[in-house]
Amino acid sequence: MIRTLLLILGCISFIIVIGGATYEHAAVVPVWTSAVPASLHMFQGEYGLAAWNFWIPVHPITMVLLLTGLIANWGTERRNYVLVTILGYAGVLAVTFVYFVPELMSLVQSSYSATIDPDLTRRALTWQSASLVRLGSLIVMAIILLLGLSKPADSKLK
Length: 158
Known about the structure:
This protein is mainly alpha-helical.
């Protein structure tokens, strides 16, 4: 029972990550990519959007919950499903750290201008497209993780 509960908590947290990313792609990204650099104003100033207040804590919490679920389910058929998800998620986090965060910070720190900058717009749209691929990857990983949850908790690996 406890191993299932731990894996359920990991699944919930992972799906919360996907929910946050889906929300941002539906409501936030279309706004900030619409008229770069003027549209980047939503991130700037005293009252700018502070998405990092969600993203910075949710990733380590999710990884700890997934790792705990993996440890609890190590000797079961669930192990490989959880392991694939963790490795994929670690890869996504690495790419996020190396490309997505630095590129977003670079764009956000652009000087305000009412004139649309074609180079900044191209970079923003590239970021958006790559981020949709990242989100799609997370969804595939969630399916794998949930398939693992569907396996019996008491069956042993053969």
